[in-house]
Amino acid sequence: MIFFTMAIAKVNGIKIDYEIQGEGNDIPLILVSGWALKKQMWLAVAPPLSEHFKVITFDNRGCGKSDRPEGPYSLDDYADDILGLMDHLNLDKANLMGYALGAMIVMHFALKYVDHVDKLILLNTVAKYDTDDLVLDGIKINSKALDFQQNAPKKYFMKSAKMAFHRGFIKELEENPDKKFHNLWTVDEWVKEYNIDAQTPQDVENQGKAMLGLNLLEDLDKISAETLIIAGSNNKIHPKTAMEAMHEKIPNSTIEVLKRAGDMTYLSRAPEINQLVIDFLK
Length: 282
Known about the structure:
- Helices cover 40% and strands 18% of the residues.
- It is α/β, with parallel strands linked by helices.
- The protein has one domain: Rossmann fold.
- The two termini are 21 Å apart.
């Protein structure tokens, strides 16, 4: 039986909701969620990894069951929240894995709190936006989509899949939407979790604005932690080329490119992601 606990930490004047799965005396793994995604985004990743490591998931400020203070938020806010959570748990060091905005937070944390990081895993992200238009457009699009997400979540998931997954997996979804993929998750399980403690347009904006002016790329050569970068060969949202540029900058990094893979590989390619993480951390 795998150890599991749910709790709340008082961090930087707000409450952060977190979960711990698994046990062990080794350095724990903290999973950092993406924009407007709760800790449940890791439903196909955290349980399998918890068989090998102590895995900590949490809701970022402005999301899920954590407090939603007045925004906008910054990468500094998010990094400080992680350090506060580590202090609450009496952790001096952690391995950090993040997706999209979560990976941006992880990179920022590694630059700001060098001594508190062991290894990094960066999944489908970018380190620089040439213009803020992408972020501002994303805020508008995601805010407008909230009603659709909440009123017809399964239909919304299937529609957004066309952007988030490789066409091979999209075909599999369309042919068998009730399948338990990789014996880890179903569409119904995903949309059910997605709609609990749903986002508001203000939440989406507060989180999204942390990416305005994003330019971590020029400082990535200062990251000393061993780093695993995982990209999708057909990712339309976080292009493989952007992650290859990150690999070139981070001195002690390796990159794995999943073929025939889109953006949400933490769902579509969960077993491969999990094995890469296990091999990297052990």
